């Protein structure tokens, strides 16, 4: 009896845990992205408490050379610190642009597979929405994930961690180089003091990242995926605005240049890469059409069945037949 109760509790815990995990997986992914952004700006480079200057391997190998390049362009070439930050930021972002495009390529491939598999996945999604009990929800979620896994679809949207991890040190280094390079805090750019927060640059950065988020919706046909992206559309702009409020204009200028490059990258994805991926995915599925699961729209039959060892009663019609014969 104790073992039965214990197993029942374990099953209920696993069931509840499975449903919570599935429902929260999108939110967890968003939280990871937010934490990654914080690591970009603060985790890769440390600040020496005694001197207030950046330190650490990332700063020594990447940040310090970027800072020297900014000083060289600003003083030796006479470009000024604002233009120097723009030039160095463009160079760094162009160097890591292939990684960003590769990451976006994987996410776009995932999106196009979702578009092509709409008829296969829609019954599972409908079953999940119509589920009323935890058991039915878990079964529907497991069936949906099994169908996605069968066709090579990731629950995290096809975004890999490796390209992001490679880009983090570069983002962090240029962020601190724009802020701590000697002479930046006393300089100005187009009448904007680079050592103080700028509301003009803050507004430009917010608008640019919002436009980039809007462009990311282009070509997404799956309604579920589109609704999820719409919920994320304000996340990136709000994060940039919050950082810019407490950062000097030199850092916000770096955000502005980064936003322009991200929009350029999104145009490459939308109008060069996505059409080719869409054609490729549809040709592959045309050759090997995906088959919908036979039980995708069915619910589990929970009607209790008659035990095999108990015989069923049968109506005895012999009495009536005998009486009829005797008459």
From TrEMBL:
Domain of life the protein comes from: Bacteria
Membrane topology, record value: Multi-pass membrane protein
GO term, biological process aspect, one: protein insertion into membrane
Ranges of Basic residues composition bias in the record: 312-327
Residue stretches spanning the membrane: 28-48, 79-102, 155-177, 189-211, 232-249, 255-273
Membrane insertase YidC/Oxa/ALB C-terminal domain boundaries: 81-270
Keyword Transmembrane (UniProt): yes
Primary location class: membrane
Cell compartments where the protein resides: Membrane
GO CC terms of this entry: plasma membrane
GO MF annotations in UniProt: membrane insertase activity
Cross-referenced InterPro entries: YidC/ALB3/OXA1/COX18 (IPR001708), YidC/Oxa/ALB_C (IPR028055)
Region feature (Disordered): 284-327
Keywords: Membrane, Transmembrane, Transmembrane helix
Keyword Metal-binding: no
Pfam families: 60KD_IMP
Family affiliation: Belongs to the OXA1/ALB3/YidC family.
Name this polypeptide is given: Membrane protein insertase, YidC/Oxa1 family
């Amino acid at each position: 009896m104790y073992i039965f109760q214990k197993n029942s509790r374990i099953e209920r815990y696993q069931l509840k845990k499975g449903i919570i995990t599935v429902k929260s997986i999108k939110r967890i992914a968003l939280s990871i992205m937010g934490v990654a952004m914080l690591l970009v700006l603060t985790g890769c480079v440390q600040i020496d408490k005694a001197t207030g200057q950046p330190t650490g391997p990332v700063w020594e190998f990447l940040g310090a050379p970027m800072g020297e390049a900014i000083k060289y362009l600003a003083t030796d070439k006479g470009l000024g610190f604002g233009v120097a930050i723009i030039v160095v930021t463009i160079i760094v972002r162009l160097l890591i642009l292939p990684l960003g495009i590769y990451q976006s390529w994987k996410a776009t491939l995932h999106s196009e597979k979702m578009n092509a598999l709409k008829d296969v996945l829609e019954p599972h999604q409908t079953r999940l929405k119509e589920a009323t009990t935890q058991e039915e929800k878990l079964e529907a979620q497991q069936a949906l994930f099994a169908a996605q896994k069968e066709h090579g679809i990731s629950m995290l949207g096809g975004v890999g961690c490796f390209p992001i991890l490679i880009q983090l040190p570069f983002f962090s280094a240029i962020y601190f180089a724009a802020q701590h390079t000697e002479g930046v805090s006393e300089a100005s750019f187009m009448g904007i003091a680079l050592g103080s927060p700028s509301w003009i640059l803050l507004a430009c950065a917010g608008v640019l990242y919002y436009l980039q988020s809007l462009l990311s919706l282009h070509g997404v046909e799956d309604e579920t995926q589109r609704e999820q992206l719409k919920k994320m559309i304000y996340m990136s702009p709000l994060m940039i605005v919050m950082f810019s409020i407490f950062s000097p204009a030199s850092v916000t200028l770096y955000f502005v240049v980064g936003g322009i490059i991200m929009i350029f990258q999104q145009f490459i994805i939308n109008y060069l890469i996505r059409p080719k991926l869409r054609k490729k995915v549809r040709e592959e599925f045309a050759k090997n059409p995906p088959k919908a699961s036979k039980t995708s729209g069915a619910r589990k039959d929970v009607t209790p069945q008659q035990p095999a060892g108990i015989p069923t009663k049968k109506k005895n019609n012999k009495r009536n037949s005998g009486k009829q014969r005797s008459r």
